[in-house]
Amino acid sequence: MLLIKGLVFHVLFLNMLAEYSFSDDSFERMAKYAPISEWYLENAERNFEYSFLGQQEIKIDVRRGDTLNLLLQKQGIPHYEIGQISNAMAYFMAPTALKVGTQITLRLTSDFERPGKKRLFYLTLPIDEEKYIEISRQKRDEDTFFFSQLIEKKLEKKLLYQSDIIASSLFNSAHALGLNLDAFYTLVQGLDYLVDFQRDIREGTPFEVIHESFYRPNGTFSHHGKILYASLGVRGETIRVYWFSPTASMPPQYFTEEGISAMKAFLKNPVRAGRISSHFGNRKHPILNFEKKHQGIDFAAPRGTPVYAIGDGYVEFAGRKGGYGNYVVIRHNQRHSSAYAHLHKFGKGIRKGVRVKQKDIIGHVGATGMATGDHLHFEIIERGRKINPLSVKSPPQIKLEGDQKTSFESFKNSLQTIKRQSQFQAVNGLRDEQKIVF
Ligand SMILES: [Zn+2]
Fold first, then answer.
1. 231 pLDDT band (50/70/90 cuts)?
2. Which of 62, 267, 393, 426 has the lowest CB atom count within 10 Å?
3. How many Å lie between the centroid of ligand 1 and the Cα of residue 286?
4. By residue range, what is the domain housing residue 332?
């Protein structure tokens, strides 16, 4: 439902409150401890004795090798209490698994019964931007114990549209827009099969994103989240991807405008009906006659059989290369290239720098170079290293259909609405307080 307050603005609220996902495990633990928490609230005054008398707050940055026990020891907490505190924390995370760089806040009081020792009154440890563990000293009758709980910050989620014209690199642009780095790397992986970051992206490439942005109850910015939409204007077209999960049980991934998963699968066979005649690994070379690692797999096929590009990409090499004879290398993405050797001839228009689509004919089977007979020698190169092509696990390709396609289309529309409203706001120079709220 669209509710117009005043005019338009560039930040739109989709969900007023962020949703949080806890593991089922945490929920159980929280439920188990809820009664004590209620008891604590009712008896707050009885805990008062711990809240004064020289309390000091200390912030400690976790360094490599730090454990909770070690940090508490250094602060002068007696060992029997350290054990209790550790046990309390263990409900939510291992006290040894402190993440380097996180900041622990401690509130300590001096222990008047034991000079030089301290009492822990309160401890907080952030888990991520949205959750933290709080451990507090409690007193019930005459017993002291430590109570831990997982606390979620009530953050407000907004969806933010931002656009940029790339000046140097996509990374610098993402940095300038302040995007969440983890989310950005996920986006790069999603775009990897659609965009060649080295060739396609140049100065002046338009770049757009819609991403989550989280705000604290007092309105201050907390952090940016997932990138739900991105577009890049490359090769005279606009590449768009959408972060979408087809079903509740499926993790989200990037989909193209057409509703096809952005991560593309490679063809299993570069030659139709080709039979593998030699596998990857050590073997006696048929011509050189000594043990040599076979860096690819061979497909037996008659001379002239078309050889297909196993995926979209750029021709990195097309020409004569020693024992390989006529050789074609296609770079598919940052990670994978494929190579085709002993070709009788090259496919039409196949030369260095040309872009090819999956199933384009890049050449024909032959026996050029060092080959005993007609066959295709096929290689996959992963980050510069030749690997067994059969070991490459392509992500399963999903094509959204039916209900999934319908909800994908409405998701796309809602994002495009955000984009249009934001652009309208920008063009008309409207102020932030003149807003549209979802
Ligand atoms: Zn071979």
1. very high
2. 393
3. 10
4. 275-391
